[in-house]
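[audit] Reproducing an earlier prediction to check determinism. Same input, same settings, fresh worker. If the tokens differ from the archived copy the diff job will pick it up downstream; this log only records the rerun itself.
[audit] input (482 residues):
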Amino acid sequence: MLFNSLNFAIFLLFTFILYWFIGRKSLKFQNILLLIASYFFYSCWDWRFLFLLVFSTLLDYYTGIKMSEAKSQTNKKFWFWLSIAVNLGFLGVFKYYNFFASSFANAISNLGFSTSPWFLNVILPVGISFYTFHGLSYVIDIYKDRIKPEKNFVDYSVFVSFFPLLVAGPIERATHLLPQIKKERNFDYSNAVDGLKQILWGLFKKVVIADQCAGYANIIFNNSTEYSGSTLLVGAIFFTFQIYGDFSGYSDIAIGTARLFGIDLLRNFAFPYFSRDIAEFWRRWHISLSNWFRDYLYIPLGGSKGGIWMKVRNIFIIFLVSGFWHGANWTFIVWGLLNALYIIPSIIFNTNRANLDIVAQGKYFPTIKELVSMFFTFSLTVLAWIFFRAENLSHGWNIITKIFSKSLFVYPMYDKNDSVKPLMLLMIIFIAIEWFGREQQYAIAKLGIGLPKVLRWGFYYAIIIAIFYFAGTEQKFIYFQF
């Protein structure tokens, strides 16, 4: 059930009515309803993997309680490592087994030996990376005595499987989400309206920007040998906006949907393409994952407290793991390592926290220095995204080498040339709206509030019309594969 589908709209409306009109006076009813709705939502993808989600939930719920009841540190460690091993074991088998088997077979083959590895013929359970990280953070926090275990199984299950965030995040923390689940929630009209606006903007990002850019990006990447370096660069830019519109659009819809039920989810994007350096980019891109790695991996490794080599080591570990988290392909690992190389100079020269504020805050336009910094950071990001999108390392490398060739100065050519100009105009409008809304939680949160009502509503209707105009075949979200 996709967020950008009629089925989800019907499901959401039905759940909303039951939640507020029937269960508004009973927190227990609301939470049970959210759990049933979440399990139904997940089973629409593949009901067989619902058992895996339930098992993972039961495991972490039970081990959390057993850790708190442990009479010795040894017993506590046993339950902790049991949960970690099983969770990572499931993730490893479903997501990484075939990758390791294939890589091992290739390595053996290069040494002159023949092997016939056994591969798993299973699909990746949707959302497994996200709900596994929900459970891991919960178990780690209990082990570190940061939180007490949740005794109510329904409440804990809602924390793990709340349907807006179940498939592609944000990656929540028990310290943030569980208290909201246990707290009485009353309908707030202004909060619901704000949620609907964020859903609307998320749908615009997905349907109008991401899906339209995807058409050109797919053609260019899938036929990269036929195009010049200039066209390949344009294709990389299309993908850059595709993945941003797709993933941040999903996050906007998820966060807006949660607000309809009186729940605030963690922010996941903060206008990352307006970043002035790579460190700032990673504070603004997939924030919930970046913070997860910071708190549960980077800081335990020593963070930035040690010497220069420890800092460099920790950065490479973080980005290597981040790349590997995204998928079982060497292209993701190279993408992660590229970002590590990008950020290392700022770590060495201690400039990684130079840009903590919002660019050109309180101003309409950036300075020349800010504009150059944003352009340079964006360019590095585009090049890294090429490996993220490439089929394999040689595919990505061939595109990069062609971009840095004489054909970069050839006028770019596209298929469907008649429709590319309107898309570029849409992208310019999109960037302008994002720029003028960059100080808010999402671009249209307060855009046009000072305008007459007819103009403000005209803007919203224009977004709705654009969504319906460009809506065609339902396109899956990119991060569903992770």
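[audit] rerun output stored. Observation attached for the diff report: The mean pLDDT is 90.
[audit] end
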